[in-house]
């Protein structure tokens, strides 16, 4: 479950008193989300989401995340938007943790991905990139190529090989390849960096917005696309679905045309994104505390995706007509 | 977490189409509850609770539970009330499980119990018993004295002693004592049988209703009080709080006066209730599957409560002036 910190009714009542959000009717922990504790609170105005930021989110990054949500919402991109107290505060403390209330984004994340979802996602991602273009704050990507080596060094090779024979050597070889071939410069901006289906809401196949900006950072825009290719365009059996890849890329380009350099870099960015999630999942898999109430995500799903991208010759293999 | 069954957006949309509940805006798994999967769904009318009944609830009991909620709600006792489809169905199927939508009860359960909570609880419990008095359906208590022996037999004595040295012998002795001294007849009716603080909601110290009727059954009314004495009237350190016991019992009696036989039986009923929760917690503690995403409840909390009740001489020790 995704509630790590218990909030008492008394504490919550005191906390809510600082906002003009009407009378508190209910507060229930939400079973989704992995990093933070999330509660759905209902007042006589509306539902809201209350988030308590847990250990894995660095407190000093929170003004960036909350500022980004406010910025893109101001630009008309729908997302949960921080609610301020009467005194103007968005980031506060509750039950010993940094805490914020954000508006309630309607919709549900899609369990079965269709081509139409990928079209909507591609357009929305390009609009998100446009909305974030003049966001004044920056944040380095804490899980980019320079961080994968140190993360890999924290994983015991034998334990990695217990997950799959030969895995440690495969990762080492891929890391070396990526370091030697990683692009040197591409269009940069604010990226979401974790745009999995459970972070994109739809109502009757209409995309209502993005959630969970807690990996957002300043990086190459095309890296966000590479993450989406991994997260949205494979079947559960590991096979790539070209119509979804095409839908995603064409829809993105209907808003912002990719440069030649970006198109050429897509396969290697997709390899990098696959390795990034392979590494973090592998680390979590091996270091999963026995009492943790979070479902472990299969690292080998990303090994299979990586192996697809390793065979890709150019962006045409993702479904695009070059 | 309390979501064992995943519901896809497509399945949910089809399921919701049978109701007149407005347009579905959101559905989020709730991190509370242990037995079933609960979702908070939001439509443009209101929030509702969707419950998928999991293995531990017997499907044949569901008409009793849902019928009870409807019955007491009709009598004016606030509780989640089953919502019927346009065709009049309350109990349906979703994602391969029995499922029902109930109305959303506002309020939160109290994390820190006060005397005032116990007063409100006592009155509400007596009103609940009155509301259930003419409920036509009956259901035997599946966790009553006759069931404790067979449950204890399923617990390995050595494993029990690993939890606390001598525990198995203590339980055997208590079981023998209870069998020899259990009352033979007391006023009967519909009881909740699981009225822990997390099943009672309050808004600003006003009790808004009870939830979670999935242990409700036909049994002695005073046994419900005995469960509440255990669940509401002890400090976390294991000490009994007489002002809370008095508040609970006096408030209950302000609505329905306990008979002499009930008052005399309270200490042994409280011992029985303590043993019932000691046994089920101990069984769950020992048989906890490693992957289960539910916090284990400490069985020894109920051993400490049991040992208090063993020293009680009469209902006066619960704070009542006799």
What does this structure look like?
Two copies of one chain form a homodimer. The first copy, chain A, is an alpha+beta fold and 322 residues long. In chain A, 42% of the residues lie in helices and 14% in strands. The first copy, chain A, is built from ten helices and nine strands. Chain A has a five-stranded antiparallel sheet, covered by helices on one side. A two-stranded antiparallel sheet of chain A has the order 6-9. In chain A, strand 7 and strand 8 (206-210) form a beta hairpin. The longest helix of chain A is centred in the last third of the chain and has 27 residues, at 260-286. The model of chain A has no long low-confidence stretch (mean pLDDT 93). Chains A and B meet through helix 1 and strand 1 of A and helix 1 and strand 1 of B.
N- to C-terminal separation of chain A? Answer: 45 Å
Runs of chain A in which pLDDT lies below 50 for 5 or more consecutive residues are none
Largest binding interface between chains: A-B, 36 and 36 residues
Helix residue percentage of chain A: 40-55%
What structural class is derived from the secondary structure elements of chain A?
alpha+beta
Oligomer: homodimer
Beta strand count of chain A: 9
Task: Tell me the series of helices and strands of chain A, N- to C-terminal.
Answer: HEEEHEEHHHHEEEEHHHH
Q: What's the total helix number of chain A?
A: 10
Question: What does the main sheet of chain A amount to?
Answer: 5 strands, antiparallel
Average pLDDT reading of chain A: 93
Query: C-alpha Rg of chain A, in Å?
Result: 20 Å
Strand order of the largest sheet of chain A: 1-2-3-5-4
Name the beta content range of chain A.
5-15%
* Anisotropy-based shape of chain A: globular
